[in-house]
Amino acid sequence: MTGGEFALLSLTVGIGAVLQVSVGFGLGMIAAPVFSLVDPALAPPVVLLLAAGVTAAVLVREGGRADLRGCGWALVGRVPGVVAGALLVVLLPARHLALLIAAVVLAGVAAGAAGYAPRPRRSSVLLAGLASGVMGTATSIGGPPMAMVWQRLTGPRLRATMSAFFLAGSVMSLAALAAAGAVGAHTLQRTALLAPAAAAGVLLARPLTRRLNADRTRTAAMALAVAGAVILVARQLSA
User: Fold this and answer.
1) What does the alpha-carbon distance between residue 34 and residue 5 come to, in Å, rounded to a whole number?
2) For 96-105, 162-171, 173-182, which range has the lowest pLDDT when averaged over its residues?
């Protein structure tokens, strides 16, 4: 990793952490395409490790505001999704996995822009958990399905619920990836190097959240994610 690449990844992680703390998701959508451009081996395991730390910090900050019952049903759905996602990581070539990451980002942004809002019934939460498990394990981007099904939640309750789900879900996904041989010394080393950037993003998020408009922040996050996905697709097609 060159100095320029390290600076780019650190900036991406810092911005992603601010968004994750502020709106409940965003680190995976922004970081995964950039990580795939720099080093395909870093996505999804390094992004998942960093996201686990950030979501743990959010959960501590927001206290007991999470909808634990809803999280439970979502995690039940995530279990088979995690297995399927780990198989995709093992079976897909790096180029196809990079294109899958880009496709997931673009699909998530499109669904959010369309305003699709399923009711948070048990069946829809289970299905969203399943989709999040596949997407989160294979690409580290498991936020869009849960953001859609829980979008009627607001403020601290939304952030706490999303964080509780993603913390448990990230641990599940990392365990599956480790069993598949996708987590090694390289992964842990890069995570340790980028952890300070994630911590800085968490610390900056509290004062910034008071000044940021939630809708504009979400729009900016989607724009950054789309830009990263488009660049990733262009890079893969021109390779």
Assistant:
1) 10
2) 96-105
CB distance 182 to 89 below 8 Å: yes
The mean pLDDT of the chain is: 84
Read off the pTM.
0.83
Task: Tell me: pLDDT of 7 over 90.
Answer: yes
Confidence band of 239 (pLDDT split at 50, 70, 90):
low
Does 10 have pLDDT greater than 90? Answer: yes
Indicate the helix (H) or strand (E) that contains 6.
helix 3-23
Tell me which residue of 44, 23, 24 sits closest to 164, measured CA to CA.
24
Distance between CA atoms of 103 and 86, rounded to whole angstroms? 17
Torsion over CA of 61, 74, 140 and 19, rounded to 10 degrees?
-30
The backbone torsions φ and ψ at residue 125, rounded to the nearest 5 degrees and listed phi first, read: -65, -40
List the structure tokens of 115: 């305003």
Tokens of 212: 């940021």
Identify the sign of the CA torsion 6, 9, 15, 19. negative
**Token pair belonging to 158:** 């939304």
Work out the widest C-alpha separation in the chain, in whole angstroms. Answer: 48
Q: Which residue has the tokens 């309750």?
A: 157
Given a contact cutoff of 8 angstroms between Cβ atoms, the answer to whether 53 and 67 are in contact is no
